[in-house]
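USER: If only I could read backbone structure tokens as easily as an amino acid sequence. It would mean a lot if you studied the pair and described how this chain folds. Here is the record:
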Amino acid sequence: MKNVAILVPENSVMQAIADPQYCFSAVNGFLTMMGHKPLFNVQLVGLTKEVSLNAGMYKVHTDKLLKDVKKTDLVFIPALFGNMQQAVASNKKAIPWIVEQYDKGAEVASLCLGAFLLASTGLLHQKKCSTHWGFLNEFREMYPDVDVQDGSIVTEENRIYSSGGANSYWNLLLHLVEKYTNREMAILISKYFAIDIERNSQGAFAMFKGQKNHSDKEVLEAQEFIENNIHERMTIDELAQKFAMGRRTFERRFKQATNNSVLEYIQRVKIEAAKRSFENSRKNINEVMFDVGYTDTKAFRTTFKKITGLTPVEYRNKYNKMAREK
């Protein structure tokens, strides 16, 4: 029997507490139907017997207090909600327990923005981590020693798991179901909950927002120039010259300020503009490609798929109703 402890933090998302409980309870149900014994002992655990969520709109009753859980096999840290610094601070008393369970051999899994609480434990120091694509910049600012993975759905390193944004955590749940049972059970659960078991990137859902919460005036001007001239082909040397810097200095300052290289930033701004065009216009692939400054179809397709996980045609067909109705 595997003991699964689902932490019930303050300022957390109720669904991210209910879903892992539902998932592993469903596995137990299917095992029983197949003539096997249930595998998981699933419990909600917390600092108090009752935890209020969403400003008191919901109340969750825990099965056990943290002080009474001496050892478990798997700890889930659900997604947090609201201001991340405040959410982490309100749950700081749970941090020693999480660390203690990990030190005793437990695996620890954060769901979506639960990564912020997980990172506050220090367990992610110099390790890889996934979280919601919309909070990457804030996460990097709060935890610069963590190797946060841009676009990843599931990350695993040294008994620590993390997932991408929102419903992406279902892919982590399926990953853990497969690990603890088998591939057949993971497929069964994916079908039962109608989850795409093979999804491995948040790229198609992400909206690029350039990191501008910095004080480097020249880099900010360079960012604005790139964003206002997406139709132009531009080189790093030309940008460095325009803003009166040597190339190496320009690249160093840009990376330090934005967490993107200059080339990455140019590509992501252009591809973001292409995505919006595919979503809202009837333009064909070549028209959109030219609009964002690409003339090489192969280069555009390769860059688009690298960033979004989909080809331009796949993306347009997925998000543009007009394209689907042709």
Remarks:
- The domain at 217-324 is CATH 1.10.10.60 (Arc Repressor Mutant, subunit A).
- The mean pLDDT is 91.
- The chain has two domains: 2-192, 217-324.
